[in-house]
Input
Amino acid sequence: MQEDNNRPDDGTTRDQKPTRTGPGARISAAVVRHRRRHPRGVRTLAVGVAALVGLGLAGVATVTTLDRDGAPEPAAVALDARERAEAAARADRSARESATPASPTAGPTPTTASPTPTATATRKAAAKPKVTAKPKVTARQATTPKPKPSWVIPMAGAAITSCYGQRGGALHAGIDFAMPAGTPIHAAAAGTVVKAGDAGDGYGISVFLDHGNGYLTHYAHQSSVKVAVGDRVGVGEVIGYEGSTGDSTGPHLHFEVHQGQMWNQIDPAPFLRARGIDVAC
Output
């Protein structure tokens, strides 16, 4: 068999170094055996550096590499940034809770509640002075009431059946107003009652009013009266009710105007027209 040319004559291979004898040879052999158990030429020693808790600094691991000759070769490797931030936050929170222990009876920290829109609107409404609306003036309030007339027609809406003048050869000294029996009769003007009742003179139940200005008015043929002699009555006041007493052929009011004294009758139509009352006579 052909000999291996790689083997030297001294019994070793070319890759092997000559083995020395003696004490030094044992140390070299131990080193050789040790190097065969690890990767060739490299031995790594990892040295950890603790995280700086409380300062919020992340931990840094330093890896020191020993080369063939045992010289250190440090290399800084940064940890994950998110993990460093979370670790720092937990450490900072733990430090605060340790420094200020919570009171067992203390409740939640009161917070100032922001005002609700309703509360804000209420405060604004309270601060703003309330304006009271002025009452509207109606037309009735604005207008001045008309003064009460001095003279009125004694029976408004009645039909005139006879005027002042000659009738059947005799003087008809007044105006006849016809309405159903019992219709109220009103004083033509304010005055004092000087006669009330039936005097047997053909006028039946009648009333005389003295107006104090030189004129008297006479209301004849009433069914009944509401006033008595000496009573003071106002314009338009009811003094009695229509009837057909005395010389009468039917219910009506015989109205007369006396000037200066009783029984001095004048035509009532022009007298009333002069005082704003128009009658169809």
